[in-house]
Design goal:
mainly beta; six-stranded antiparallel sheet; 9 strands; about 10% helix; globular
């Protein structure tokens, strides 16, 4: 009986693990390997010191169309700035609007708290490592 319970708990433990990646199988956003270090004491990133603020890190530095870093109040989140439901094009770089990111191609709004909208794919999320005043965003 003890063996059955041990196998049951082991199985639940293995299948209960989450990679933290969400839906990483987005056909529109390629996977790029990058690391970006941000110092929130620098003027360009000082907005990240306050909850519900976001900054855009331009394309060429990270991600497919740049990266949006957001202070949720309980931590930091980072997303690719490419519209998740559009092919990469001239209009597919999202724009920060308060606590949302807006895709100019279709005017769809994505919550920076969750990365979700009403469409199929959420914003592509990246890993964040916080050691204030430094924040590392990487894939």
């Amino acid at each position: 009986m003890k063996k059955i319970i041990l196998v049951l708990f082991s199985t639940l433990f293995l299948f209960g693990c989450d990679s933290g990646g969400g839906n990483d199988n987005n056909p529109y956003i390629p996977n790029y390997t990058f690391t970006v270090d941000i110092n929130v004491n620098l003027p360009s990133y000082s907005n990240l010191q306050f909850p519900s603020n976001a900054v855009y890190i331009p394309q060429g530095t990270a991600g497919a169309r740049g990266v949006i870093v957001f202070n949720s109040g309980s931590g930091y989140l980072a997303y690719d700035a490419a519209c998740p439901n559009q092919p990469i094009s001239g209009c597919s770089t999202m724009v920060i609007s308060g606590i949302n990111a807006i895709c100019p191609c279709d005017d769809e709004q994505y919550s920076l708290f969750t990365g979700l909208s009403s469409l199929q794919y959420p914003m592509k999320r990246y890993r964040v490592e916080v050691n204030l005043p430094n924040i590392r965003v990487y894939n």
